[in-house]
């Protein structure tokens, strides 16, 4: 199998070369939906390539012929290979990977490994994902957990030096950080925050929901105890499945989720249970093998494309989108940060993002529309209540971005 840094589609080719055009044609041929519409909602759910669709459908057919349990047993070796493929994406062995129904479930399972109570502190960022922020606030309301948010850098994104100051002042029980927010192309500096956490011996939880599939990941370099992600976004896998990386030090110190079930542990005596080895203690028993195999196929496809290839092309397309969106009268590009990813966001005077999204969809152009509830702090600071999110991936083209922006120009008058 290709490694995380090499690919049969080499990233050393110059932009717009004949070889790059051949690669793009192959990617688009593997993406039937790309022929029918302009799909610029990869930060929501990317179009899956043919091998992913085939893997899911083949297993559903096997379930129909053999029975659900029997088909799962027949697919056990392929399921094991799916764990290994996800591990290669993160630079970790398969026993450090747990599967979950979504990235949010995976994140919650990690959060539930900490016996947080009154007086415990969770340190996070101004830009953390809405579901995560709600979890922290729920812990504050139900358990008396305290919440602190590190300051942003002037250009946007968490300030690692402020994290260091806050950790020195009062050691948190956990530092939790969303790598790439849902409503912005900003990339937060998880490695710098991870270094602070390692120095202080503070557990570190990363939400990589928007990161996996669009940038190379090495969990050892990040230094995180946990990393949660999903299949459906830039990884181009099926909906309804996510995964959690669990560092060896986390299981070595005895971490496990509060409500562990018969997948994560074995009931050994009337009043005793034994935890599963490795990350599997964070799984729950019911899981769709079809989606697991689809996730494995998506990981394999991403590794073949080359994550650096995906990043370079998608980020270039997103920057092109920002430049073009900035020329639309009444538009304001909202993305900040030292590093910006394959998510371009903008607000348009007199136009709600949701209405624009639906009008574009009627023209065969898929986008999405973050609103204030998705990122209260960030949206309030920017003085907007809604926006339009354009998130290209490596199988998109400059012409598709241009077409979408011209449609926006027409719709906004």
Please give a quick description of this structure.
The protein has 413 residues and is α/β, with parallel strands linked by helices. The protein has 15 helices and 14 strands. Helix 7 (160-169) packs parallel to helix 8 (190-200) and helix 12 (307-325) packs parallel to helix 15 (398-411).
Q: Which terms summarize this structure?
A:
disordered N terminus, Aspartate Aminotransferase, domain 2, 3-stranded antiparallel β-sheet, 7-stranded mixed β-sheet, 2 domains, alpha/beta, 13% strand, globular, Aspartate Aminotransferase, domain 1, 413 residues
Detail the topology: elements first, then pairings.
Elements: H1 18-29, E1 38-39, H2 50-66, H3 68-74, H4 76-90, E2 97-100, H5 103-111, E3 121-124, H6 130-143, E4 146-149, H7 160-169, E5 174-178, H8 190-200, E6 204-207, H9 219-222, E7 226-230, E8 242-246, H10 248-252, E9 265-269, E10 272-275, H11 289-305, H12 307-325, E11 331-333, E12 344-348, H13 353-362, E13 365-366, H14 376-382, E14 388-390, H15 398-411
Parallel strand pairs: 1-13, 3-4, 3-5, 5-6, 6-7
Antiparallel strand pairs: 2-8, 7-8, 9-10, 11-12, 12-14
